Each structure stands twice: as structure tokens, then as C-alpha cells.
Amino acid sequence: MSQDTVRKVIEDRWRERVKAQGFPTKGIKYQKLELEFFLGAMTAINAMDPNAEADKLSTLVPPAWVICPMSGRPIVEDHGGR
After folding, report:
1. pTM above 0.85?
2. 63, 14 in Cβ contact below 8 A?
3. pLDDT category of residue 1 using cuts at 50, 70 and 90
4. Nearest CA among 17, 10, 18 for reference residue 80
5. Using the 8-state DSSP alphabet, how is residue 75 labeled?
């Protein structure tokens, strides 16, 4: 499975969850819910496909999932974020 496939599948699941649960699509609550979801996804991916270098994330984890929250941007851009 490629990084692009993983990204698309997991981000689509997030969109489905937001819609099904009626989550807000911007603001602090959205930030926290999005971050918790993607931290869980990254942890699971890293456990299933660890990087050969133990201190690095799996190559299947898209860099944007780490960089976007650190820079105050939403991971899933189409929700408009903050």
C-alpha cells in the first residue's frame, strides 16, 4: 500500500466520522478531535509498518499529518480548519 493510498483512505474515514458524529468543522474542538483521530491513525500505521530507524515514523505516514497541526493548519484542508 502506498502513502497516497493510506492518506486517502484515512482522510476519507475522518470526513465520514465528522459527518456521522456531527462534529464541528472548525475551531478548537475540531482541532482537538482531528488531532486525536490522526494521532491514533499514525500510531496504528507505525505499529503495523515501523520505520527501520526506530526514532522515525513509518514511511506510510504522510508528512502533512505531522506538519499541519504543528503549523496551526487543519490536516484535512477541505474542512476549512481553524
Report:
1. yes
2. no
3. confident
4. 18
5. S
